[in-house]
């Protein structure tokens, strides 16, 4: 999948700004897939792309499959009424001038909808009085639970949680993650978008790493036991940057969208960058040791324990959501 | 409730200071005016044929020989006792003149205010919801053309089309010329008010629509609208349930702030249509050096504009749950 924006440059010249260049990932039922990436790597756009609610000046290419069928904008419009739900970042996603109940029910006043709203809120420990509150009267944690309740009201099959934990302390965040695990165990597919690798490892089955609008690695959580099982140099650096694993910072920053013309976007920051890395038009995403990696020389260095679980990656035909890929122009 | 009373009290003190400032500035501008009241109102020829004694009496009538500070303080002490003085041109108490003129203008101002508010908001919401598409381009184009058109020019244009060429509506005045006051019907008054009200509405709409459009675009790009869409709410529902609700708060401010523009516009428009309203009286008083009347009109209109803003502030407390519930809990 790729997403680009029409942007006005100097004067009235317009240019296409590719923000997501080559994303691919899949989520199966009952599975929590974490999407990890720095801010600006295109995580939220992925969520909006799946839901078909990208801004008006954007343009999406590539294919998304849901339940084996292509997910068009029209189909996404129907599915987001019930089957696909979004859990957004925080209280700003609630209308400041509308009571919680009216937001959750979408204005419907029939008994069935009201009952479902009541049950969804109760499930997360929010009583009847919460329904009558305005968003500014909710605490941060309450708002988070209201947003989750809003997602589960419809019994969705795919839940996309977009950075649902910032601003929460570790205990509150873990409680939220517990709710996510529970939803996945009930059979829903869960896409957990975050910049926090430690939190992602806490709850996820698989982790997909984004860098500058590209999927650079797909790995199971068990691969994160040590740096040697990880494939891409950026993922390794991410792992080493965790407090328990050395706390080693990575120098430099992710390139700004539109500045990478060809080759590996990580080249600037990579210690093992070679000439081919910057000259290849587009580095392909390859199967590697039960996961996937977008790197020409992932085997180099300390990568030894590969080849263990080849074939697992192909067993994803029953996946609930699958973002196919197509190279952006 | 206590909070709101305190709020209103503070505002009332502020309006007192404001009105004092407005009257002082008006007075100083009048003093600086190069117009000689005697020459303007009596005429050079008539002055020349008068005796020195007569000229002296006229000078006393127009207050030319009194020092400015004394004049202003005299006016102020009168006002504080509830006496706005007597209009020098109309030879009637200022309040009587203003009351009569305001009565004539009221229908005009109210109609223009309501039409421009409702229509402006509807157009603005539509343009914002269809941002970048043809309804937006159409509305925006209209608004930009109208905002760059002077109100008096538009008034003349409408006058030419509807009164001169088509002959549907009267050319000017607020009642038919030469008719006895008792014989004038409400329909006559209405017919005379249509064109001035239309002019004021057309110009007022553009401003309100453009502002509402900006607000609407902000709302449509907000997180909560994104989330409403993600929950499967239709575009119509998003506009009606979230758009209108969130645009309505700034719209209140805008609507009551537009009182000043409508009153300002009425000065020009009434002049074009020879409509005997407050705006026309202001022009007459200004050009004729009728100091008490001009001061009276400025103070009264300033008070009306201020009252409009005060009402908007108070309405906020009723409409916005954040203020309503927030202060209730204090």
Automatic annotation (TrEMBL), chain A:
UniProt keyword list: ATP-binding, Cell membrane, Ion transport, Membrane, Nickel, Nickel transport, Nucleotide-binding, Translocase, Transport
Membrane topology of the entry: Peripheral membrane protein
Stored InterPro entries: AAA+_ATPase, ABC_Ni/Peptide_Import, ABC_transporter-like_ATP-bd, ABC_transporter-like_CS, Oligopep_ABC_C, P-loop_NTPase
Reactions the enzyme catalyzes: Ni(2+)(out) + ATP + H2O = Ni(2+)(in) + ADP + phosphate + H(+)
Main location: membrane
Gene Ontology molecular-function annotations: ATP binding
EC annotation from Swiss-Prot or TrEMBL: 7.2.2.11
The ABC transporter domain, residue ranges: 3-237
Gene3D superfamilies the record matches: P-loop containing nucleotide triphosphate hydrolases
Localization, UniProt: Cell membrane
Signal peptide per UniProt: none
Description of how the protein assembles with itself and partners: The complex is composed of two ATP-binding proteins (NikD and NikE), two transmembrane proteins (NikB and NikC) and a solute-binding protein (NikA).
Cited PANTHER family: NICKEL ABC TRANSPORTER, ATP-BINDING PROTEIN, OLIGOPEPTIDE TRANSPORT ATP-BINDING PROTEIN APPD
Family: Belongs to the ABC transporter superfamily.
Designated name of the protein: Nickel import system ATP-binding protein NikD
Lineage: Bacteria, Bacillati, Bacillota, Clostridia, Eubacteriales
UniProtKB/TrEMBL annotation, chain B:
Membrane topology per record: Multi-pass membrane protein
Transmembrane parts of this sequence: 12-35, 106-130, 151-173, 193-210, 251-273, 293-319
Pfam families the record matches: BPD_transp_1, BPD_transp_1_N
The entry's keywords: Cell membrane, Membrane, Transmembrane, Transmembrane helix, Transport
Subcellular localization, as worded in the UniProt entry: Cell membrane
Domain ABC transmembrane type-1: 102-316
Domain of life of the source: Bacteria
InterPro entries: BPD_transp_1_N (IPR045621), MetI-like (IPR000515), MetI-like_sf (IPR035906)
PROSITE patterns found in the cross-reference section: ABC_TM1 (PS50928)
Signal peptide positions (record): none
Family indicated by similarity: Belongs to the binding-protein-dependent transport system permease family.
Annotated protein name in UniProt: ABC transporter permease
